[in-house]
Amino acid sequence: MTDTDLIPAPLTARTGGDAPGRPSLDERTTLDAGPGTEATARWLRSVLGAATGLPLADGAGPHAVRLRISPETAREHGPEGYRLSTEDPEAAVTIDGGGPAGLFWGAQTLRQLLGPDAFRRAPVRPGAEWDLPRVTVADRPRFGWRGLLLDVSRHFTAKEDVLRLLDLMAAHKLNVLHLHLTDDQGWRIEIERYPRLTGVGAWRSRSKQGHRASPLWDDTPHGGFYTRDDIREIVAYAAERHVTVVPEIDLPGHSQAAIAAYPWLGNADVVDTAALTVWDTWGVNPNVLAPTEEVLRFYEGVLEEVLELFPSTFVHVGGDECPKDQWKESPAAQARIAELGVGDEDGLQSWFIRHFDRWLADRGRRLIGWDEILEGGLAEGAAVSSWRGYRGGIAAAEAGHDVVMCPEQQVYLDHRQDGGPDEPVPIGFVRTLSDVYRFEPVPPGLSEAAARHVLGTQANVWTEVMENRDRVDYQVFPRLAAFAEVAWSALPAPGDRDTEGFLRRMETHYRRLDALGVAYRPPAGPTPGQRRPGLLGRPIDGPPPIV
Ligand code: TNX
């Protein structure tokens, strides 16, 4: 019997059949790519070719990796499902995808079955045979939305590192990259008609080091943005890996970088918006958009360019953490409340969101926003990212809105993963690998009809305290492996999670992450180079009840 140690765990994997011979890939192995499988064949050749040094030429035959799109697999497992077998006498491996995505996920499984060295970028044992277990896998995802949010505003992520993260997501069968492109601390997407958004808004002179209460500053200027071509490249690279990129333009809060670029976007009757700069510290910022028609037109212009670049059905408009103080003080905002008849400041927030909900719907897209968009009434068709626990998600789903579950209590990967004194710059609660593994995206007690509105789940990577790739790696891994299993793998019965079994499979997975060059948090704690205690983070033991 061979143990396959797959992560995320497949629906079924039957190992140890008694067919003669030993399945393996070697110099004779070819890629037999049926119609519609060419992209995955290219991916396999580039990835496995690099790791193994094998030629993997085109062709059919008994030593082939046979790739097919199969209507039967589609019927049984859906377009993201697949069937993989090393027991077929006519090929070394067959992968039948329900659709191109399913085929690609099957190819990811093949890579795992070849062992951790198959994740290297150059062969460590040229000329070797690559043994495979004798196995038949049937698999499909539990959820259609298996997401990761990357906050590129607080700290900019270079395009190359976004592409690398897309590869790492695909290796974990995750399929939505939610790019948090704008915030108080930086605007990260080129908008041709408003060049100051990046000319001014993408740069800050210094950054708070650590928690917002820390007295330390990093005086190195920080910034960066993606050009339109960068975005096209990211979106295309993602699409080849069956990952959808969902852009977020956060409004009407989290907008200081935009206001620093175009001061008339802010509440200029109560603050000197012309004196605002891109924010250099963390927390909830009072400088929010002014509720004017001009501001709506401006953001329509932004979103027109966003829609040109991102084909995703969903477009995220934020809606979170919008303090209402300036609107309370502003005579102009108060006059708007009266003129629009929206009652109060919460009404203004929902006026913003409803406007863009209609605007996006008119263009064949769908709005998604943080659960605060429920306040003041949510437009029909809008979907919710439930981050403040289950509560917003439950309310939205029971009201018939689609929901992505991403509660901060469970899947905020900026939170520390251990209570130890050597953990780097803690934010919020302790969220261990096992805590993430135990997360259940469908809240118990949700009605069956409402549960169907849970599109899936998402882990969020906010980067206030992650100023480079190694810090992101440390926070994201290994917990993303646990999250991937939560998002992909069906449970034998509700609540029935085998944490022990998962941690045992992780032993193999750590070797895969090593081969990929991921700077994960080792199970025994941070390495000397990863230790960075202090900076005033307050560790809070966890996990608290999820509400
Ligand atoms: C809350 S989650 C935020 C982010 C922060 C994060 C830090 C959400 C919608 N807003 O702006 O980065 O907490 O954990």
TrEMBL record:
Keywords: Glycosidase, Hydrolase. Transmembrane segments: none annotated. Residues 143-490 form the Glycoside hydrolase family 20 catalytic domain. SUPFAM superfamilies: (Trans)glycosidases, beta-N-acetylhexosaminidase-like domain. The keyword Hydrolase applies. The keyword Hydrolase applies. Its EC number is 3.2.1.52. It comes from the Bacteria. Residues 1-36, 519-547 are annotated as: Disordered. InterPro entries: Beta_hexosaminidase_sua/sub, GH, Glyco_hydro_20_cat, Hex-like_dom2, HEX_bac_N. Residues 4-139 form the Beta-hexosaminidase bacterial type N-terminal domain. It catalyses: Hydrolysis of terminal non-reducing N-acetyl-D-hexosamine residues in N-acetyl-beta-D-hexosaminides. Belongs to the glycosyl hydrolase 20 family. This is beta-N-acetylhexosaminidase. It comes from Streptomyces omiyaensis.
